């Protein structure tokens, strides 16, 4: 994972995604009346987890980055929110003492597991941690614009944010698409400025794998889920197509 989601990147993460509210609205609405224990995999800074917790749902978070979890912990302390637990573990290999009624992984984070082995291991861990009535909720997006473009060798700006104190950060991306493995390999440059002066610059690689809708349905079936619903085809994210899958551990019939 390199430096992705650590240090300054973790500190600025919420600033960069400030305008992305569609997924917060979607998941907050989904869990608004939910009466059960929820776990969010790859919860990061709690951008989605916190609004769900604030509506009274018992929710735990899991993430591989302690720096992202530290940002979440600060929010929990500030809002004095109760009942939130966070676990610094890998979504492809986790072990927790609780059985959950719902486990969700949003913002395409499942796609950070680019190997089939890790993806299957993760789904196995999810099944082990679900109650019999429990389900997995996972969103998957197809980065269609990037697939069509195939590659961009020049860095282009994807985020440019100025804080009220005048500090500024810019995120630049270049990428290439690997069709046979269905992977977008990105290289990201993060520039941090204090009053026009460059104070830090971090470059890091990050890959995501995409799945087609029927392909992901088969993967969920083969992993051992029973009924699987595709809840929405409406775009949750700026780029491409997204799908939300709801996969039940056991058949209710
Ligand atoms: C795109 S962010 C999403 C965070 C949060 N879900 C949101 O929507 O704001 C991806 C998160 O996945 C975490 N992550 C990456 N690989 C992971 C892994 N193998 N296991 C657990 N978390 C992982 C990162 O640390 C990061 O917090």
Q: In short, what is this structure?
A:
By secondary structure, the protein is an alpha/beta fold. It has helices at residues 7-16, 22-30, 49-54, 66-79, 116-128, 144-149, 213-223, and strands at 37-41, 58-63, 85-88, 100-105, 130-142, 151-162, 167-178, 183-194, 197-209, 228-232, 241-248. It has two domains: 7-142 and 212-248, 3-Layer(aba) Sandwich (Rossmann fold), CATH 3.40.50.150; 144-209.
Could you please describe the fold and organization of this structure?
This protein is of the alpha/beta class and 253 residues long. The mean pLDDT is 93. The chain contains seven helices and eleven strands. It has helices at 7-16, 22-30, 49-54, 66-79, 116-128, 144-149, 213-223; strands at residues 37-41, 58-63, 85-88, 100-105, 130-142, 151-162, 167-178, 183-194, 197-209, 228-232, 241-248. It has a seven-stranded mixed sheet with strand order 3-2-1-4-5-11-10, with helices on both faces. It has a four-stranded antiparallel sheet with strand order 6-7-8-9. It folds into two domains: 7-142 and 212-248, Vaccinia Virus protein VP39 (Rossmann fold); 144-209. The chain starts with 6 loop residues before the first helix and ends in a 5-residue tail after the last strand. β10 (228-232) and β11 (241-248) form a beta hairpin. 27% of the residues lie in helices and 38% in strands. The structure holds S-adenosylmethionine. The site of S-adenosylmethionine (SAM) has 18 residues, from loops. Residues 1, 5, 42-44, 47-48, 63-65, 68, 90-92, 106-107, 109, 112 line the site of S-adenosylmethionine (SAM).
